[in-house]
Amino acid sequence: MAAQRDKSRTIPGTTVFDGAESRKGYRINKFAMSFTKPENRTAFTADEEAYMESWSLSDPERQFLRDRDYRGLIEECGGNIYMIMKLGTCTGHGLYHVGAQLRGQTFEEFMATRTASGAR
Amino acid sequence: MAKIVGGIGTSHVPSIGKAYDMGQQEEPDWKPVFDAYKPVQKWLVDLKPDVAIVVYNDHGSSMFFDKYPTFAIGAADSYPIGDEGWGPRPLPDVPGNPEFSWHLAEELVYNEFDMTVCQELSVEHGFLVPMNLCFPHEPSWPVKTVPIAINVIQHPLPTALRCYKLGQAIRQAVEACEDDLRVVIFGTGGMSHQLNGARFGHLNNAFDNDFLDKIESDPLALTKLTHQQIMEEAGAEAVELIMWLTMRGALSDDLTRVHRNYYAPMTTGMGLIALEENA
After folding, report:
1. How far is A5 from chain B (nearest CA, A)?
2. Do residues A100 and A106 touch, judged by C-beta distance below 8 A?
């Protein structure tokens, strides 16, 4: 069997979303997936704490979400980027806000690294 | 007999759909993307396809990690526009051809590609951005579609070679259909991009342009790429590019390149190639 991944070669600054990540992140990702239903978006917006409680999120998951700390949700809690992005429908934060956090930059610093940032 | 008349490789960046819906086609930083598709739209009008097979991945619209299929095929009369979190985009539902889908499913499974058959499937940006860019769609779409979804987001993923072989099997399955259908096939996703970690925003223009060269002239070289190589060079999410190999595997080697474009304004290499069968 040809190896598709070489786990001895860590790619700097990269999380590969595999079985271990998917198990770790199952709850937060399912929570974020719930935002594909309008009634759940309404429920979260109306009472964030109650909505998080209804999903039995862990204390760290709740705190990262309160802090809008997407890096924590992805890197500590196993969040999948495509799911975590859905939280932005209620928090108002888009992909490039999340990306700037992941890079440890401000939004403006990150945008300055792009060649045609009007295409956002 | 049904036959494949052309193939298209294209990125499916979701922000393009949002820009389209907001009418930003003429804005300077967006215009190069939208203009690139105009010759392809015209080519498709002349090519007169009846069916578009669209190879894409679901990013958490209709599929979740409770049961995420490696290979899936839509077999519905119609595919509604999915809600990815922001409400469905203002596009008409996309018509299917369930008889043709079931024919393909039967041929593929008996040819040892074990597809998950989906009779209810909403479609999302991976499918819709390419369709949106390539076809006029008001008041309705000019082609029927067969969505084929591949897992490229939760490792283990199918190999690049496996995706190419799926394309070869799709070609055989199309040609085994007695209906007189003209079929185009889309391979979507990529090109270079990374959306997680401190390496967010990684691009590799040289990798992308080499991929565009080889998808046309030497696809077998690309089938040798491992996921590790693609992720190291072009970013973790660039593995979507293996779906282009399904498109290419469904084509012959007697092709004319109709169009090619590359533009990388933000965080994703936006590639486009259109290949027409000569025979």
Report:
1. 5
2. yes
Residue A3: CB atoms within 10 A of its CB come to 9
List CB contacts (< 8 A) between A78 and chain B.
none
Looking at chain A, the number of H-run helices and the number of E-run strands are: 10, 0
B193 is catalytic: yes
Q: Which of A14, A104, A114 sits opposite B196 (nearest CB)?
A: A14
Q: How confident is the model over B192-249, as pLDDT tens digits?
A: 999 999 999 999 999 999 999 999 999 999 999 999 999 999 999 999 999 999 999 9
CA distances from B134 to A48, B4, B75, B189 (A): 40, 17, 22, 15
Closest Cα in chain B, distance from residue A32 (Å): 9
Cβ-proximal residues to A33 (8 Å cutoff; 6+ apart), any chain = A83, A86, B60, B64
Partner residue opposite A99 with nearest CB, options B19, B29, B195: B195
For residue range B242-271, what is the model confidence (pLDDT) as tens digits?
A: 999 999 999 999 999 999 999 999 999 999
Out of B125, B137, B202, B259, the active site residue is B125
A79 to each of A7, A85, B127, B249, how far by Cα in Å?
Answer: 20, 10, 23, 34
B82 and A36 within 8 Å at the Cβ level: the answer is yes
ipTM attached to this prediction = 0.96
Contact: B154, A17; criterion CB under 8 Å: yes
CB contact under 8 A, B228 and A9: yes
Residue A2 has pLDDT above 70, yes or no: no
Query: Helix, strand or coil for residue B79?
Result: strand
Architecture of the CATH domain A19-91: Orthogonal Bundle (1.10)
Q: Residue A97: pLDDT above 60?
A: yes
Q: Which of A6, A18, A115 sits opposite B265 (nearest CB)?
A: A115
Domains of chain B, each with CATH number or no CATH: 3-277 (3.40.830.10)
Q: Which residues pair with B74 in a beta bridge?
A: B118
What the block records as the tokens of B226 is: 């491992």
**pLDDT above 60 for A1:** no
For residue B103, indicate whether it is catalytic: no
Residue A27, phi then psi, degrees to nearest 5:
-70, -50
